[in-house]
Specification:
Chains A, B: Catalyzes the insertion of molybdate into adenylated molybdopterin with the concomitant release of AMP. Two copies of one chain form a homodimer. Chain A folds into four domains: about 160 residues, MoaB/Mog-like domain (Molybdenum Cofactor Biosythetic Enzyme, Chain A, 3-Layer(aba) Sandwich); about 60 residues, Molybdopterin biosynthesis moea protein, domain 2, CATH 3.90.105.10; about 80 residues, Beta Complex (Molybdopterin biosynthesis moeA protein, domain 3), CATH 2.170.190; about 70 residues, MoeA, C-terminal, domain IV (Beta-clip, Beta Barrel), CATH 2.40.340. Chain A contains seven helices and 26 strands. In chain A, helix 1 packs parallel to helix 6, helix 3 runs parallel beside helix 6 and helix 4 packs across helix 5. At the A-B interface, helix 2, strand 14, strand 15, helix 3 and helix 7 of A face helix 2, strand 14, strand 15, helix 3 and helix 7 of B.
Chain lengths: ~400, ~400
């Protein structure tokens, strides 16, 4: 049996990061992975400008009643400042050559002749944003391998970029196996259960940022499974299935992958979880998740998510682990396996703490829908209230 | 000047939660808001079933060499167990009537005659998952007002639901104002700047779960702005603009909203930020963000996001605030305004701490793209390293 860390490292080693890239219009790059660093091609702001609505002047010219010689709105270009005068100026408008300070309008008074007097003495540079103060030409503003967020797009726009180079989406084909699976909405025949895996796995992969190809459900049939694997390998970078990878003789996925490519089948020392398959079919990676929904969910989070994130080309593939105090006891730990308990981080009297979902043994997704994270215990690690535990926040899903 | 809390409470009071709902196929409900609680219409699992691959038997019948009288795969229905025999059974398969335990196959040995012997003595109930153990018929499994995540969809599928009732998307129309705005990709004319607001605001609203209607950019023109407001009110639940709401005389948005509906214009005591407009035009809410990108970004996060989340119908509208130790000093706090510093939560030697983006005064989005959260200081609150600060994690964007 492989330890959790061994299995994770083994998978991460095999994750060849996506490298093919394409330029996309800025608004279509949201949530995509930046393929190359972005450098600023210009200064931001592009010219010295006013950070206030007010009056621009030369400090040395300050006088009790100054003529207002021009009006500079944002978007217009000023004339050089006439000596001894002030310029009416608005936020964001360029500073007229010759001016060296802006006095905000609340500190200015216009008289009947249109001359302006000020209630303060300005210092040079006051209320002026300097050219290149925010972003200097040539500066790297976004690193490669980053998932682009809203502020990143705004930042790229502020230096005039209409497109960004992003990595191509990872195409993940998914199918489900099992004669006992019925689709929701249909009545259950004797012995059937609803295929819940399809309904959490597809959106979870979508949330991860993959292009998901849904190939549906196949019965416990070797030939049909082999055909589906070939179809999947033809269109996808990664194939993910749920079920059919334990040692029972009804599991055809194992045999089908072995016939079409190569397969490593592991018992990984995690709970819930345990069976996990990795293989290759043609150019595609194959990942077989356990069919129990909770086992599959936890295995996706803890083993497959880091693999897929690296495979997608993200520079930060691994989850961020926090330390949070337990608000529960867990007195009979599994001695062989790392346990991933479904927990919720809540604010208690003593600060943040982890609450435990009471039914950890269940195969139903209730615990996963309730939880916002996993408490990661080493084999044999018992918990008493107050213990500091490793908390693995569930990604956006 | 309104305090931050006053402005937030005032806005939240005015947010009438979305109530119109529609049923959607399960896979289309990901990220949508559940309109009604979901109750389980059946037991999960629907019948007692095996949690292992192995042999089902009646404990009292245990004998050294037992005949295997039937074979029960997942998806099939078993016959009543023939007395004195065992049934070959697989994970998830229904327990034959009469059997009361399952022995895992690793603890069983088949002899040449096809009889099975066991290396353990089973106890009643062993390796059997009981009907309704995971979800009992009639139980509420998902509450109304919840943003549906992947596990929720799996949970709904496991009780056979093909559709869920979700709230209609909040339609948010967005436009931008200013003669000085140029679109990225075009050369900058004298005095122009790139419209970065469009490129962070549209994806940020999309990430919040709104249906975003992009109405483009309008120059500093009162009639054109009025027309755009009427167009927006005809199609949207909420209108959001950036810029044009400060007191400068070039700002036409204020006058346009006043002409077409009603407007409250505030100075909110936050930094960055300050001007914020709320109004109504016909049946639509109007929100005017400050035009400075960083001010707009922080105002969206701290004031508008809670408003929109409540308006969308989410039961948890407000952000979760953590306490995290400062790894920086901030010795000259603003005495009148709450400050929202752009920070990053990082693991230090003493645990999690907040690092400060060095250039807090900048108008460029660099700090917002770098940060993963905001440190929320009260007016006059200075910071020395080690102080416990309120940390507001930026939502997915």
């Amino acid at each position: 049996m492989l330890s959790y860390q061994q299995a994770r490292d083994w998978l991460l080693e095999r994750a060849r990061p996506q490298s093919a890239q394409q330029p996309l219009p800025l608004l279509q790059t949201h949530g995509r992975i930046l393929a190359e660093p972005v450098w600023a091609g210009l200064d931001v702001p592009p010219h010295d400008n006013s950070s206030m609505d007010g009056y621009a002047l030369r400090c040395n010219d300050l006088a009790p009643g100054m003529p207002v010689s021009q009006r500079v709105a944002a978007g217009s270009m000023p004339q050089p400042l006439q000596p001894g005068s002030a310029a009416r100026i608005f936020t964001g408008a360029p500073i007229p050559p010759g001016a060296d300070a802006v006095i905000m309008q609340e500190q200015a008074q216009l008289d009947a002749d249109g001359k302006v007097a000020f209630s303060i003495v300005p210092r040079a540079g006051q209320n002026i944003r300097l050219r290149g103060e925010d972003i200097a030409k040539g500066q790297e503003i976004l690193p490669a391998g980053r998932c682009l967020c809203a502020a990143d797009l705004g930042l790229a726009a502020s230096i005039g970029l209409a497109n960004l180079p992003v990595l191509q989406l990872l195409r993940v084909a998914v199918f489900f196996t099992g004669d006992e699976l019925a689709e929701p909405g249909l009545p259950l025949a004797a012995g059937q259960i609803y295929n819940s895996n399809r309904y959490w796995l597809l959106p979870a992969l979508h949330s991860l940022g993959c292009e998901v190809i849904d190939l549906g459900t196949v019965g416990d049939d070797l030939e049909a499974t082999r055909q589906l694997l070939r179809d999947a390998a033809a269109v996808a970078d990664v194939i993910v299935t749920c079920g059919g990878v334990s040692v029972g003789e009804e599991d055809h996925v194992k045999a089908a992958v072995e016939a079409e490519g190569e397969l490593a089948l592991w018992q990984v020392a995690i709970k819930p979880g345990k069976p996990l398959a990795y293989g290759r079919i043609g150019g595609a990676d194959f990942i077989g998740l356990p069919g129990n929904p909770v086992s599959g969910f936890v295995t996706l989070q803890t083993l497959v998510r880091p693999f897929l994130r690296k495979r997608m080309g993200l520079s930060e593939a691994e989850a961020v682990i926090q330390q949070v105090a337990a608000a529960f006891a867990w007195l009979k730990p599994d001695m062989q396996r790392s346990e991933f308990l479904r927990v919720r981080k809540v604010m208690g009297r003593q600060g943040w703490q982890l609450e435990l979902y009471p039914q950890q043994s269940s195969g139903a997704l209730t615990s996963c829908a309730w939880a916002d994270g996993l408490a990661w215990l080493e084999p044999g690690q018992a918990v008493t209230p107050g213990d500091s535990l490793r908390y693995w926040a569930l990604g956006p899903a």
